[in-house]
Design goal:
There is one protein chain. By secondary structure, this protein is mostly beta strands. Helices cover 12% and strands 41% of the residues. It is built from 3 helices and 25 strands. It has a 5-stranded mixed β-sheet. The protein has a 4-stranded antiparallel β-sheet with strand order 2-25-24-23, with no helix packed on it. The termini are far apart.
């Protein structure tokens, strides 16, 4: 009888472990990365090039965030501190809100994002969160996110009405990722290390992805107050050692100056087949990483400085990049591509592209 119980117990444990392994394999894709020199023009297939036109009084200069859906592009221009809407063919529609102290106005924009159905635009500023109609730009309401101090938070993602994830990079004892739900809040992730105030959230279909803390490379999915690993990036060499993670600003400056390691993911986006990450690497060099979610193919190489491309979003099966013409080298393949549009070279462009699906070598 004891032997029978032992066998049953071992069988149940085995089934449990197998179930756990299956769940992990389904949820967690690991990319083993050894950076190399990638010729990006051989990996990209360009889908479209759109000149952003019609806003001559306030020319775009520094695009901090771009949101894309079937109807429009919504762009936050950091230099002018304004939010603009453009049609899908690049024509200027209108400005959304304005800077000021009225209830419908914003002060020091930190981040912008859509509601899940893209009907609302949410803006995080120093006074809380402002909500506009995404299509018309009409002001709807303001959420003060009390009792939290909005100045502590730099990035956010909408979960539902009055329900958000917030990123806090400061050393004040609060969690790095906070979940706020109509007046109540809880820590979702604590780190104890100094954080760079870069992107922390993006959407993939209905999934909220959470970019990892400084020194970590596991992109997670938010689910019911928890973060579940979805993608792991494992560097063969030069990953920031755990003991080198900066605990304060002075340590951060010292470590950044040394420039020896891959430090953090600055931003990330996904299509149905590929994930992109912009990674701060050795010598303060930005690296582009593209990983195939289906077969594990991965490309990682320094960001091409001669192409003038800033990858800002993904939508459906394409990635989108802003192109600054004045930053495109004379011999860059990007210059020939944008000149085919026959528009003024002073415009900014949005280029959409996808990655060639090559069969990995055995």
């Amino acid at each position: 009888m004891n032997l029978f119980k032992h066998i049953v117990f071992i069988s149940l444990i085995s089934l449990f472990l197998c179930a756990c392994m299956t769940k992990t394999e389904k949820r967690d894709t690991t990319f083993n990365v050894s950076p190399s020199q990638v010729t990006w023009k051989d990996k990209f297939v360009f889908d479209d090039c759109i000149a952003l036109n019609g806003n001559d009084s306030i020319p775009l200069s520094t695009i901090s965030k771009c949101l894309i859906d079937d109807n429009q592009f919504i762009i936050y221009d950091k230099k002018s501190r304004k939010i603009f809407a453009y049609t899908r063919d690049g024509q200027f529609k209108h400005q959304i809100g304005r800077e000021g102290r009225a209830k419908s106005e914003y002060i020091n924009i930190k981040d912008i994002t859509f509601s899940h159905d893209h009907s609302l635009l949410y803006v995080l500023d120093d006074l809380g969160i402002i909500i506009y109609d995404a299509l018309t730009g009409v002001y709807k309401e303001r959420d003060k996110i009390e009792p939290l101090n909005p100045t502590c938070y730099w990035k956010f993602q909408v979960i539902g009405s009055g329900h958000y994830l917030l990123f806090n990079p400061q050393e004040d004892g609060l969690g790095e990722i906070i979940e706020y739900n109509n007046g109540d809040w809880t820590d979702v992730r604590k780190t104890g290390f100094y954080q760079l105030a870069c992107e922390r959230f993006y959407m993939n279909e209905d999934n909220i992805r959470v970019i990892p803390s400084y020194g970590d490379f596991n992109i997670c999915t938010y689910e019911d107050e928890h973060l579940t690993p979805s993608f792991m990036i494992e560097f063969e060499n030069d990953k920031l050692p755990a003991e080198q993670k900066p605990k304060n600003f002075n340590e951060f400056l010292k470590m950044s100056g040394e420039g020896k390691w891959f430090n953090c993911i600055l931003s990330a986006h996904e299509t149905s087949s590929w994930i992109y990450a912009n990674i701060l690497g050795p010598k303060q060099t930005c690296y582009w990483l593209f990983g195939n979610k289906e077969n594990g193919t991965v490309y990682c190489s320094p960001m091409p400085m001669d192409d003038g491309m800033q990858i800002v979003d993904s939508y459906k099966d394409s990635f989108y990049a802003v192109v600054h013409p004045e930053m495109v080298g004379e011999d860059s393949y990007i210059r020939n591509f944008i000149e085919e549009i026959n528009e003024s070279s002073n415009n900014l462009y949005l280029i959409s592209f996808h990655i060639k699906n090559e069969i990995p070598k055995e």
